[in-house]
Write a structure and sequence with these properties.
The complex is a heterodimer of chains A (334) and B (259). By secondary structure, chain A is α/β, with parallel strands linked by helices. Chain A has helices spanning 20-36, 52-58, 77-91, 102-114, 225-229, 231-237, 246-250, 281-287, 316-331; strands at residues 7-10, 13-14, 17-18, 40-46, 63-68, 95-99, 119-123, 125-129, 134-141, 146-152, 158-162, 179-182, 195-201, 214-218, 241-244, 271-275, 292-296, 310-312. Chain B is of the alpha/beta class and 259 residues long. Chain B has two domains: 2-208, HUPs (Rossmann fold, 3-Layer(aba) Sandwich), CATH 3.40.50.620; 229-259, no CATH class. The chains are: A alpha/beta (334), B alpha/beta (259). Chains A and B meet through helix 4, strand 7, strand 9, strand 10 and strand 13 of A and helix 3, helix 4, strand 7, strand 8 and strand 9 of B.
């Protein structure tokens, strides 16, 4: 077996800046690399990538690899997996980490099978066992009811994708020095199957749900579109974002991209406030990483109280206006 | 269109949390006796996506499942929904494997079936949420994959899918054979009618064992599995009126420096 070394995180750029998940990966990546006594590198893949990739150095990377070319303008499984396979065969990383994003969810599994190694997706914690140098990967399973820890013993690289907001972001230090290394995987275009023929982007005004420090989430019990919109005021007061369980999205009280849960957004804010929602398994799976959970629901048996730190058992239509007004007063905002 | 749909039988993920327990020795969730096993809901969505294609073009759907004997129930359910054939992959050697081992057995079974244009899987298991098996099967078969789709159709012999992204959707066009993984956004799975349910029970479902399809070694090993114990119980905030409770909640959060 070749001698593998170093931690590589696969970075992402969003609106010309490092994506927040990437600064989180750089932080945990730095820590793991230091524990292993090895280097941390960031790898970016795309077309006409801005100088944003260089920023990864001030966020902790010793080296930044870029795979840049028109054939990587659109994400296609074949081109990205092919490029990373070539990268792996050239640089032999010991650890390969992804964000659990649209990119990571598709790229990481296919790559793991190509490299014939073990991957764990959607980890909320990763750590190095200093004795065995194995990466211990913790992920929620059974809809967040249980946690499992996996290791990959016999094959390399060790791979994981990390859920957003479960790691602290790295703090930039512009005095840090590092190396920029362009890498050409020399892929055969003929081997790329499929093409992207269209794309629609959801317009998000304000703070992105998965990046928000405060999430105000409404459920079926909110009762209607007009009532649902009232959650906006509280979210605005707390510098947060509005989320929803599945029923409000199905009933079009709010856009589909607000949905939090296994099939929607996975959020881990500092403060999550769940209002008039029961807390189905698939919703809990999407928010159980929240640091503090507050629930307002008139049903004391609601599942959400099983995971909440603070709760009010009462009619939200009476509790919420008073709560919002008091928050406004305390924050003297408005 | 020759389609293969991969489905899994799981413990209903919507069971009340207090019924959820892990077996100390088995390192698996214990099935409460009153709770039935169900089809993993994303797999049911995959079946629905296959049926949408069958509604439009003449097709054959083969449903395969890796699991214990009882998994024939979810295969029959899919046949009742509108599937044609079913195969159960069942052998003690298939159990307790990871995503790699599972994808390997399914891919071997698909090779044995031989004739296919489109393979459909759920986007992730409803129990272990691994999210790797679909991509893995495609890689082992050497065919393209498009994951987490919310819509699919056949256009000029090509597969056109709508793929869900964290910040939007994109349309991807790809030639067959191809594998897709399906999300629940594809639409509510149809209910089987009584006649089809009855017919599904007459259907012979062959069982393939490790003698028919070779198992593979796992890549990952599970070190531990546990139900997290919450250190803090929920602190209930009250008041003389609901309004007062709301005010008190705000004060509490301020005191705890949460707002």
């Amino acid at each position: 077996m070749v001698d593998r070394k170093g931690v590589v995180i696969v970075g992402e750029i969003s609106n010309g800046k490092l994506a927040s998940i990437t600064t989180e990966l750089l932080n945990i990546g730095r820590k793991l690399a230091d524990e292993l006594g090895e280097e941390l590198a960031a790898l970016f893949i795309g077309s006409g990538m801005s100088e944003a990739a260089r920023e990864a150095i001030s966020y902790g990377a010793d080296r930044v690899y870029t795979i840049d070319g028109p054939m990587f303008a659109d994400y296609l499984t074949d081109s990205y997996v092919g490029a990373l396979e070539k990268f792996d065969k050239q640089f032999y990383p010991e650890l390969l980490l992804f964000g659990h994003t649209s990119l990571g969810r598709d790229l990481a599994p296919r790559l793991a099978f190509r490299l014939e190694t073990g991957l764990t997706l959607d980890c909320i914690d990763i750590a190095i066992d200093t004795e065995t140098r194995l990466l211990k990967k913790t992920k929620p399973i059974y809809g967040g009811n249980a946690l499992a820890v996996y290791v990959c013993e016999g094959t390399r690289p060790q791979m994981a994708s990390i859920r957003a907001k479960t790691m602290e972001p790295a703090k930039p230090d512009t005095s840090r020095k590092g190396e920029m290394i362009p890498f050409d995987p020399a892929l055969d275009k003929a081997a790329i199957r499929g093409k992207v023929t269209g794309r629609t982007k959801e317009e998000v005004t304000g703070i992105k749900l998965e990046e928000a420090n405060v999430v105000v989430c409404g459920g079926r019990g909110i009762g209607g579109m007009e009532q649902f919109q009232k959650l906006e005021e509280l979210a605005w007061l707390l510098n947060g974002a509005v989320g929803a369980t599945r029923p409000p999205c199905d009933d079009k009280w709010c856009p589909a991209h607000c949905q939090i849960g296994n099939t929607g957004k996975l959020v881990s804010p500092a403060l999550y406030i769940g209002i008039a929602l029961s807390g189905s398994m698939q919703h809990i799976a999407g928010m159980s990483g929240s640091k503090t959970i507050v629930a307002i629901n008139k049903d004391p048996e609601a599942n959400i109280f099983g995971v909440a730190h603070y709760g009010v058992v009462d009619d939200y239509t009476k509790v919420l206006p008073a709560f919002t007004a008091k928050c406004k007063e305390l924050l003297s905002k408005g | 269109m020759n389609m293969i749909v991969c489905v899994k039988e799981i413990l209903d993920p919507e069971i009340p949390a207090k019924l959820f327990k892990i077996g100390a020795e088995t390192q698996r969730a214990i099935k409460p006796s009153e709770i039935k096993l169900v089809i993993s809901d994303y797999d049911e969505s995959a079946m629905e996506a296959a049926l949408k294609i069958k509604d439009a073009v003449a097709s054959k759907i083969t449903v395969i499942s890796l699991g214990s004997e009882s998994a024939t129930n979810v295969i029959r359910h899919c046949i009742a929904m509108g599937g044609d054939e079913g195969i159960l992959l069942s052998d003690p050697l298939f159990i307790d494997n990871d995503s790699y081992g599972t994808a390997f057995v399914l891919a071997e079974a698909i090779k044995k079936i031989g004739d296919y244009d489109l393979i459909l899987c759920g986007r992730q298991e409803g129990d272990w949420d691994a999210g790797q098996v679909g991509s893995g099967i495609a890689e082992l078969l050497g065919i393209p994959s498009v994951t987490i789709i919310s819509g699919i159709e056949v256009r000029d012999g090509k597969i056109v899918v709508e793929r869900l992204l964290t910040d939007g959707r994109e349309t991807v066009e790809v030639a067959t054979p191809v594998l897709v993984t399906v999300s629940s956004e594809v639409g509510e799975p149809r209910y089987p009618n009584l006649r089809r349910i009855r017919e599904s029970y007459k259907k012979e479902i062959p069982v393939w064992t490790a003698q028919d399809v070779a198992p593979a070694k796992a890549k990952n090993r599970m070190l531990s599995l546990w139900v997290p114990v919450r250190e803090a119980k929920c602190e209930f905030i009250t008041g003389a009126t609901p309004e007062e409770a709301g005010t008190n909640l705000a004060l509490k959060l301020k005191e705890a420096k949460l707002i």
